[in-house]
Amino acid sequence: MYIxxxxxxxxxxxxxxxxxxxPRQSTQKVTxxxxxxxxxxxxxGFSGAFQRANLIVNLKEPKQSEVLNLLFNxxxxxxxxxxxxxxxxxxxxxNDWMNTIxxxxxxxxxxxxxxxWDGKDSGQLWLSQKAWGYGVRTFYNDAWSAPGCMxxxxxxxxxxxxCGVSGTNCKxxxxxxxxxxxxxxxIQLYADSGVTITHIGFLNEPxxxxxxxxxxxxxTQAAEFIKVLRPTLDAANLTSVGINCCxxxxxxIASQHASQIASAGALPLVYAITSHEYTxxxxxxMGTKARVWQTEYSDLNGGWSTAWYANGGSGDGYxxxxxxxxxxxxxxxxxxxFWEGVQDRATNNNNNEKLILVDGQSYTxxxxxxxxxxxxxxxxxxxxxxxxxGSNLKSGAFVNSDGSVAVVIINTGTGAQTVSVSLSGASSxxxxxxxxxxxxxxxxxxxxxxxxxxxxxxxxxxxxxxxSFLVSPAVNSTGPAI
Length: 482
Ligand SMILES: *[C@@H]1O[C@H](CO)[C@@H](O)[C@H](O)[C@H]1NC(C)=O
Ligand SMILES: *[C@@H]1O[C@H](CO)[C@@H](O)[C@H](O)[C@H]1NC(C)=O
Ligand SMILES: *[C@@H]1O[C@H](CO)[C@@H](O)[C@H](O)[C@H]1NC(C)=O
Ligand SMILES: *[C@@H]1O[C@H](CO)[C@@H](O)[C@H](O)[C@H]1NC(C)=O
Description:
Layout: E1 5-14, E2 24-40, E3 43-47, H1 53-57, H2 63-72, E4 82-87, H3 124-133, E5 138-143, H4 176-192, E6 199-201, H5 219-235, E7 242-248, H6 251-263, E8 272-276, E9 291-296, E10 299-303, H7 317-330, E11 335-343, E12 351-352, E13 354-359, E14 362-365, H8 367-373, E15 383-388, E16 393-399, E17 405-411, E18 417-422, E19 433-439, E20 442-447, E21 450-451, E22 456-461, E23 466-471
Parallel strand pairs: 3-4, 3-11, 4-5, 5-6, 6-7, 7-8, 8-9, 9-11, 11-13
Antiparallel strand pairs: 1-2, 1-18, 2-15, 10-12, 13-14, 15-16, 16-17, 17-23, 18-22, 19-20, 19-23, 21-22
Helix pairs in contact: 4-5, 5-6, 7-8
This protein binds 2-acetamido-2-deoxy-beta-D-glucopyranose (4 copies).
Keywords: Hydrolase, Signal
Signal peptide: 1-15
Pfam family, one: Glyco_hydro_30C
């Protein structure tokens, strides 16, 4: 059996105490262990929900293509691999609301619904089609609420519950099956337009009631609906569409959802337990058998910032590099999805809940986008493997399905370091090693990788910078790649 250990030798260039001394080199070693296999990665993404996608639709060329490339291009942009769409529930498109395909329900749950599809879906269909063109194949359509006519409060906003789940008693009856049919219709409409929806959600922050689309649910009530939705998807030949649940406002509630769904026997019907990070941050590992996705988070309070490192605040790109790293490396997440990809200046006092500010016909890119770009070397289907060692360094390693190995490293020190990647112990023949880095003045810039005769590859990463290595597939290897 083949030795599955890759050594990363990290040389730290320490500043000389005075100018008479040459800089000293101290070597740190990060060990990548390909035999230690953890979760499978589904990808990284963002949303264009609540009509934000229209900001890109309305951009003129060449700016429109520039923004799309920043989001989806795998060689020049963030290379995002997941789009999270909002399934509208509102009767109108006033404010930034997402309109529903069922403005009026039939008189009874068994009646024939009259769906009205506008072919736009608040700009999200267009965005999804463009994403498809860039090779994105993971589309997560998620409803914030059922249409109001299916709910206890008769309104898609202001909380309320789905008629038919335990604890409800609606005069109009049980709308669980009708809601499942409605979600299937959304998937079919996207399929008719060339976009295969791979994941479906039916809640958003169900532990909260808001003045816009919102529907409340416990994990137990969600399980009741999941038991209706799964066979409905299967009967529509949508067996490969995964059900995600339940978009809790924070990790603590998501963990409750996971255990309630498991107690109700519905966990095998769930693809991913989904959490946001607003009311409690992701920490530790949830310990569920389902995959876990972080599906919506952003800095809602900070004033618009494009900085990589200003002061370590919640909008800094560097902070986001650490946030995403924590999710996928420390907390076993299979996906990390930011909130809005783009937003205008007027909304929420021009805060940091977007990656790109689109202001009429101009746009500005934040370093949060480049934090995600550093993870673009990790492709959907990658398996996280062991990586350890090195002071002032955080490292994560992933084997992509094409056999390449991605190693993402954050330099938490304030000084530049030379990172040396040694391929000793690997059976790769002349692997190609490339590396890219981001700091205050670089955006996923490719940097020179020097490969010595001993097979040691070196690259430099600035203080508080992030560097991503991609080691090309090994040729002629009999074991795992490299
Ligand atoms: C990504 O950007 C490169 C460089 O500009 C370009 O050649 C390529 O066509 C872009 N990819 C897509 C899918 O548009
Ligand atoms: C079901 O879906 C598969 C692809 O997912 C397709 O090949 C097949 O034709 C579909 N069958 C029906 C009855 O629609
Ligand atoms: C990590 O997630 C996977 C599913 O992606 C699961 O099978 C595994 O048990 C999880 N590991 C831990 C420690 O919870
Ligand atoms: C790699 O494999 C190919 C085809 O199997 C073979 O021709 C070639 O000699 C091998 N190269 C090395 C360096 O082993």
